[in-house]
Protein: nitric oxide dioxygenase
Organism: Lentzea albidocapillata
Amino acid sequence: MLSPKSAELLEATLPAVGAAIGEISALFYERMFAEHPILLRDVFNRGNQANGTQSQALAGSIAAFATGLLAGRTPDAMLRRIAHKHVSVGVTPGQYAVVHKHLLGAIADVLDVSAEVAAAWSEVYWLMADTLIGLERFLPQGQQEHRVIARFQETEDVVTFVVRPVDGQVRAGEPGQYVSVQVPLADGARQIRQYSLSGRSDDALQFSVKRDGEVSNHLHDFAPVGSTVLVSHPAGDLTLQPGDGPVLLASAGIGCTPMISMLAELAATDSPRRVVAVHGDRDQLTHPFRAELAQLVAKLENARAHVFYERPIGDWPAERTGLVDLGGVELPQDTTAYLCGPVPFLRAMRAQLLEAGVTDIHYEVFGPDLTS
């Protein structure tokens, strides 16, 4: 609960902070990385810092949390998503104080706020930080050295890695979760990226990597069978929920990885649930797990697949050429929808689902969450 005085000041200043949050976020990161360069080198995604998406995500999360406090609610789904991402990259409780120092300093400098207003936003920050620390305390933490025991070329730019702990037992993940992988780069940085689990195994972890960015390129070029990588425990709140209701698994591009993992779990358990799998890609050659999708759907009694290609090769149904369109896909209103793909895809799918009366929607986005 926000104190009454802070709530009053928050309501009065939220529009100004919201309007300047992009400038505040940029200044915050600049100052924090100047004082703690190791955070940019070994924790934060340098690519997302360079293109500004990390700043936008921070701005969105703070604005969403502050707005929720004023409305008497908290954005629980967003907080769970952030907590899982934090434990996957090794964020510690002590680092929240570092963020507080530079974030509040950036707010004060950009807006020249009074001490009272600064104290109110400090209260907001610590309410959010304490909530996240509490959530993170109960999530599996830590990293283990894993050995690459197999790798498969799915498409020209997607490789699947199968890894097993060098010491100890594998910590199995749930369908839909991801792992963080940390690798040493040529300049000495140890950058971290998240990759969704793309299959099920009792004694290994399987994840798939699209060639895109420093870590992904390193894994493609310098992680042969027999090499080792540092892998986190599986994390992520996009998991297949139990039940017998209908399910939609919708993806685009490499977003198919958590969906194929969920589909594999449904097939392995001979699920009687009605399952609709929808995927969009550029063409047949860029579609990872194309054969697996067809095979898994064929194993399920009540499953159907709908695949859309923007520029299909050879003969392809006209109604499935172009971007994914759920208009011709029959979906009961009690469907539970799971989505993964680029932000524009997520927004388009959510709008189409709501129009169809489907409201139980869960999603995963690769990179900073700009949808909240």
